[in-house]
């Protein structure tokens, strides 16, 4: 099989990990989440990553989530998985991803330890070289690559992209303008719509969209406005949708995950406002505030097709 060595571009879908009343993975809810993203035209599915509570999954759950994603997507768009944490688990989950037929994986930071550049290089090289799958490095927290380290990793043909969740624009400019189109550049900042207008001019051509799990038409409208340099619409969407949701997201740690599930529940998708500790669910007041923003969003920016809202 010939592997296309190219990172996905455009708006990327990151499904959640739906849990039922017993705290188990709700497979039907996951299927609905992924199908919704596909129906809305998202360009790739990234399963069991940050939004999918990667940190809280066991191997059996991870295996099942990848299996469900592959079954629902069925080759329509690329499927990437999340790997990372301790090295042995990362290698095991990379193998599962390959065995299940994924197109690649996003390598999340190692657990807890802030390594030297040499250590980060060895960590990433070991994972990337363990399979033939495409690999995207997630730049954030305790895993921030400097230019010489990234350049060494370019010797590995499996490396196709870098996702930035760190937000150091000086470093981003250095990386993108030196490495260029050898890699795909993905904006992975929390609620990436907030920062995407700053990322696009330096070569970032895709981003992970949390709000695409419940208002994907707004994500599309916003991204197209950026690309078309429609600053009036960009500002309008900032004021009416993006910044109000982002303000709610900042109220509690972990809302980067749980607020997605709340939004999905509000529009009628079969996902409960249930997360695993240490993440906390969205409280009642914040849920009501999000509900108001979403209701106003659909009133001001109705979908061209039938809304999911009940």
Distinctive features:
single chain, 310 residues, alpha/beta, 11 helices
Can you walk me through this structure?
This protein is an alpha/beta fold and 310 residues long. It has eleven helices and eight strands. The protein has helices spanning 27-39, 59-73, 87-99, 117-128, 147-153, 169-179, 196-199, 216-227, 231-249, 255-267, 284-300, and strands at residues 10-13, 44-47, 79-83, 104-107, 134-139, 159-164, 184-187, 206-208. It has an eight-stranded parallel barrel, surrounded by five helices. α8 (216-227) packs across α9 and α9 packs antiparallel against α11 (284-300). The longest helix has 19 residues, at 231-249. It is globular and about 50 Å long. 43% of the residues are buried. Mean pLDDT is 96; it is low at 305-310.
């Amino acid at each position: 099989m010939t592997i296309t060595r190219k990172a996905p571009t455009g708006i990327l879908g990151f499904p959640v990990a739906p849990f039922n009343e017993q705290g188990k993975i709700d497979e039907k809810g996951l299927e609905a989440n992924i199908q919704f993203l596909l129906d809305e035209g998202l360009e790739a599915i990234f399963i069991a990553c940050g939004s999918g509570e990667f940190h809280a999954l066991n191997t059996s759950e991870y295996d099942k989530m990848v299996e469900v994603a592959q079954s629902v997507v069925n080759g329509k768009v690329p499927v990437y998985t999340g790997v990372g944490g301790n090295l042995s688990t990362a290698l095991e989950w990379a193998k599962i991803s390959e065995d299940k037929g994924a197109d690649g994986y996003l390598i999340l930071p190692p657990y807890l330890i802030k390594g030297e550049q040499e250590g980060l290089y060895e960590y990433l090289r070991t994972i990337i070289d363990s399979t033939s799958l495409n690999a995207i490095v997630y730049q954030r927290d305790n895993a921030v690559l400097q230019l010489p380290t990234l350049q060494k990793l370019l010797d590995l043909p499996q490396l196709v992209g870098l996702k930035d969740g760190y937000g150091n624009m000086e470093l981003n400019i250095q990386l993108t303008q030196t490495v260029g189109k050898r890699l795909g550049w993905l904006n992975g900042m929390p609620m990436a719509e907030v920062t995407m207008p700053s990322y696009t001019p330096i070569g970032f051509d895709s981003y992970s969209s949390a709000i695409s799990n419940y208002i994907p038409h707004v994500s599309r409208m916003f991204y197209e406005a950026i690309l078309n340099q429609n600053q009036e619409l960009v500002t309008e969407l900032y004021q009416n949708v993006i910044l109000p949701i982002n303000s709610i997201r900042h109220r509690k740690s972990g809302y980067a995950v749980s607020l997605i599930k709340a939004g999905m529940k509000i529009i009628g998708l079969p996902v409960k406002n249930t997360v695993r500790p240490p993440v906390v669910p969205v409280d009642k007041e914040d849920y009501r505030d999000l509900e108001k923003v979403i209701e106003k969003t659909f009133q001001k920016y109705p979908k061209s097709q039938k809304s999911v809202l009940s």
